[in-house]
Amino acid sequence: MDLTDILNVSQAVVPYLKVILVLVVAFFVIGLTKRLIRRFLSTTVLPLDVQNLLRRIVVYGLWFAVLMYVTHELELEEIFMPLIGASVLVGLAVALAVKDALSDAVAGVFLLLDRHFNLTMSY
């Protein structure tokens, strides 16, 4: 083996090492973020359902960002980007198909957030 062969092999391994490092760091950072969000949201007056929903949105968004970095670093855009685009279109079609149920769910979240009434209130 020549020195150039060793350098070529090491250049081929570097993106995989970066991805492994990013995944390990992301695992710990997202876990820490989850705990910090839980601690922050526990001081608010939001219901537990809304707190869990907000925490999951943030965590899924962070994992999505990590996934996008991994696909870019490993040059897998040609494979995953059309799949992600197709999943967005399928999600849009499903959302349009169940928009009445989704509007009821959103209205329920707003009712939980606004707290216009309590179950223990009597008139």
Layout of strands and helices, then pairs:
Blueprint: H1 3-42, H2 48-73, H3 77-97, H4 99-114
Number-wise, the strands total: 0
- Based on Cα principal axes, name the global outline: elongated
| Biggest sheet descriptor | none
What is the mean pLDDT?
85
* Rg, nearest Å: 22 Å
Helix content: over 70%
Spans of at least 5 consecutive residues whose pLDDT stays below 50 are: none
Structural class: mainly alpha
- The fraction of residues assigned to DSSP E strands is under 5%
Polypeptide structure, described:
The protein is mostly helical and 123 residues long. It folds into 2 domains: 1-75; 78-123, no CATH class. Helix content is 84%, strand content 0%. The longest helix is centred in the N-terminal third of the chain and has 40 residues, at 3-42. The chain is elongated. The model has no long low-confidence stretch (mean pLDDT 85).
List key phrases describing it.
2 domains; single chain; mainly alpha; 123 residues; 4 helices; 84% helix
Please give a quick description of this structure:
This protein is mainly alpha-helical. The protein is 84% helix and 0% strand.
